[in-house]
Design brief:
- InterPro entries: F-box-like_dom_sf (IPR036047), F-box_dom (IPR001810), PP2-like (IPR025886).
- This is F-box protein pp2-a15.
- It comes from Nicotiana attenuata.
- This protein has helices at about 1-10, 25-30, 35-45, 50-55, 55-60, 70, 85-95, and strands at about 95-100, 105, 115-120, 125, 135-140, 145-150, 155-165, 170-180, 180-185, 190, 205-210, 215-220, 240-250, 255-265, 275-285.
- With about 290 residues, it is of the alpha+beta class.
- It has 2 domains: about 20-95, no CATH class; about 100-285, Jelly Rolls (Sandwich).
- Strands 1, 2, 3, 5, 6, 8, 13 and 15 form an 8-stranded antiparallel beta sheet that branches. A 5-stranded antiparallel beta sheet has the order 4-7-14-11-12, with no helix packed on it.
């Protein structure tokens, strides 16, 4: 049976029956339109016709977002000039930095849909100029290799804006934060909660709005030790994604402006000991992949 299956991949089997290699490349390409990029790459190993179809510009054009040319504009022209559509997909499926490296986008390697991450470096942070309250520290746990650390403040507020031609879709915006300060001890990950306080005394308010009038608000106590997140992660010592809300994009033109903020401005108590890494914008029904390469 194994030998028969192997024969099917060739141009005609030993007994004269047609094999997979006899299927016209154009027909294979039509089938590939309905498959995911990883499935296409796996089938390309079967025979020459499948390899040819798997390199077709028409196939990979269908996997790219409708405005992928605008995404390429974020890169130096020499990085993509002369590339076939398959290589363009691979290029955009890796992290593409922009805005001085403080923002990054990538295509989800399964669906080809756009995901974005915005570093805390791209946000306006109240009191950041005073190192008694805020500072930056490097970490390998961030896509941007640096996070903002709040040591102690009374007025806590971060805000940011992104203008981008998002393709039509429904997107979710989340903040990625971490209670405590991460460090290495004897080569192992550890957390210092010495300055972590105040987050159980009042909720943090998350907010987003868009240039076409959409608005979403959510509130959450960050330090509720008895309550885990939706994935069962313990909030202390883990990175947590806090969902702000969703927004809908119906067209890439005009460009969508998204404004977002995270604040706790109840000045009756101080708070501190919190890392803020980034904001993520991803299609709402997408199982998010790392975006660090395909």
């Amino acid at each position: 049976m194994g030998a028969s299956l192997s024969n099917l991949t060739e141009n005609g089997s030993a007994n004269g029956r047609p094999g997979l290699g006899d299927i016209p490349e154009s027909c294979v390409a039509c089938v590939f339109m309905y498959l995911t990029p990883p499935e296409i790459c796996n089938l390309a190993r079967l025979n020459r016709a499948f390899r040819g179809a798997a390199s077709s510009d028409a196939v990979w054009e269908s996997k790219l977002p409708c405005n992928y040319h605008q995404l390429l504009d974020l890169l130096p022209q020499q990085n993509y000039e002369g590339l076939c559509k398959k290589d363009i997909f691979a290029l955009l499926a890796r992290s593409v930095p922009f805005d001085d490296g403080n923002k990054a986008l990538w295509l989800d390697r399964i669906s080809g849909r756009i995901c974005m991450s915005i570093s805390s470096k791209a946000m306006s942070i109240t009191g950041m100029e005073d190192r008694r309250h805020w500072n930056w520290f490097p970490t390998e746990e961030s896509r941007f290799h640096v996070v903002a650390y709040c040591q102690q403040v009374w007025w806590f507020e971060l805000s940011g804006t992104v203008n981008f031609p998002f393709p039509p879709d429904i997107y979710t915006l989340t903040f990625r934060v971490h209670l405590g300060k991460i460090f290495k001890r004897l080569g192992r990950r550890a957390c210092n909660f010495e300055h972590t306080h105040g987050w159980d005394l009042g909720p943090v308010r998350f907010e987003l709005s868009t240039s076409d009038g959409q608005h979403a608000v959510s509130e959450c106590f960050l330090d509720d030790i008895g309550q885990n997140d939706a994935n069962g992660n313990i909030k202390r010592g883990s990175w947590i994604e806090y969902k702000v809300g969703e927004f809908i994009v119906s067209s890439s033109d005009p460009v969508t402006e998204v404004r977002f903020s995270m604040k706790q401005i109840d000045c009756t108590h101080s708070k501190g000991g919190l890392c803020v890494d980034s904001v993520s914008i991803t299609p709402s029904d997408l199982k998010v992949h790392t975006g660090k390469g395909v």
